[in-house]
Amino acid sequence: MSRLPHRFVCLIAWLSMISFAQAYPDRPVRLIVPFAAGGGTDAMTRILADRLQQRLGPRFLVENVAGAGGNAGADRASHAQPDGYTLLIGSMGILTVNPWIYASTGTAILDRLVPVSMIFDTGHIFVVNPALKAASLEEVAHLARTSEKPLTFASGGVGTSTHLYAELFKLAVKAPMTHVPYRGNGPGLTDVVAGHIQIMFDQIASASEHAKAGSVRPLAVTTKQRLSFLPNVPTAAEAGYPQLMGTSWTALMAPQGTPPEIIAVLGRALAEIAAEPETREKIEALGANILASTPQETGEIIAHELERWRSVVKAAGITEN
């Protein structure tokens, strides 16, 4: 049997990849949310899953895999077959904070993933249980410095954005505070509402309904402008803490080795979804923004944020244990 010329072999391979991409997806796709159900990331992902299903055909199933500050779910996604049927909803904390805290596993997980697109970002809102006698960030700072027992703050887990923004506040006020990590933002906020924990730097997408209802007292937001549904709540800069300004973002990630044609299919669908007014309104109602970006742009953001949070992790002395 004669051997095919190399250019024909390449052509056949290229046509096979095109055919594969055109067929994708032809069965359900799993979106792994590495946090417990009930938080803002979970709620936004379910909206996105519905839109992806409507646009691409098969079901997009949301699977919550909580634990280890998000590393449990991220690790599962990173070890999945690189065929586009298991994807990670990757938070800022998992992708740019955990590599500095979980020295071996965090870095290894990041190395086994490739970016698809940015998908969401949201500011943070500093909330306290209404029983806490503080009506501003400065009053919380005073309590933190003078209370006999350290104030307690909840987070969605070690290394999550809700942890890191609270650590920024702790560094700013130079007072001891006790961190109580949970398996997701939802359970942490539930305990703040119940009064078991005093404060939380929750994501707006997670805390907005409780803040509007008064079951927690909102004291400041980390966004550049005040929120339209909480017009009397100042920005962190207005409250005297400009170092707390910023957002928490989420990116769609795929296992290393996923064909670029599959990533392109997902990227195009995400860009189209981000441009839909109805979808934007649904995400904005949760206190967040829907985003879209190229894999290269997403990778550049991750690289920049890795350096930003490295210094915070070091200054705060955050460790795995």
Structural account:
The protein contains twelve helices and eleven strands. The chain folds into two domains: 8-122 and 248-316, Bordetella uptake gene, domain 1 (D-Maltodextrin-Binding Protein, domain 2); 124-244, D-Maltodextrin-Binding Protein, domain 2 (3-Layer(aba) Sandwich), CATH 3.40.190.10. It has a six-stranded mixed β-sheet, sandwiched between helices. Strands 7-6-8-5-9 form a five-stranded mixed β-sheet. Mean pLDDT is 91; it is low at 7-19. By secondary structure, it is an alpha/beta fold. Helix 7 (161-173) links the parallel strand 6 and strand 7. It is globular. The longest helix has 22 residues, at 295-316.
SSE inventory with pairings:
Elements: H1 6-23, E1 29-33, H2 40-56, E2 60-64, H3 71-78, E3 86-91, H4 92-101, H5 105-111, E4 113-122, E5 124-128, H6 137-146, E6 151-155, H7 161-173, E7 177-181, H8 185-194, E8 199-203, H9 204-213, E9 217-221, E10 248-255, H10 260-274, H11 277-285, E11 288-290, H12 295-316
Parallel strand pairs: 1-2, 1-3, 6-7, 6-8
Antiparallel strand pairs: 3-10, 4-10, 4-11, 5-8, 5-9
Helix pairs in contact: 2-9, 3-5, 4-5, 4-12, 7-12
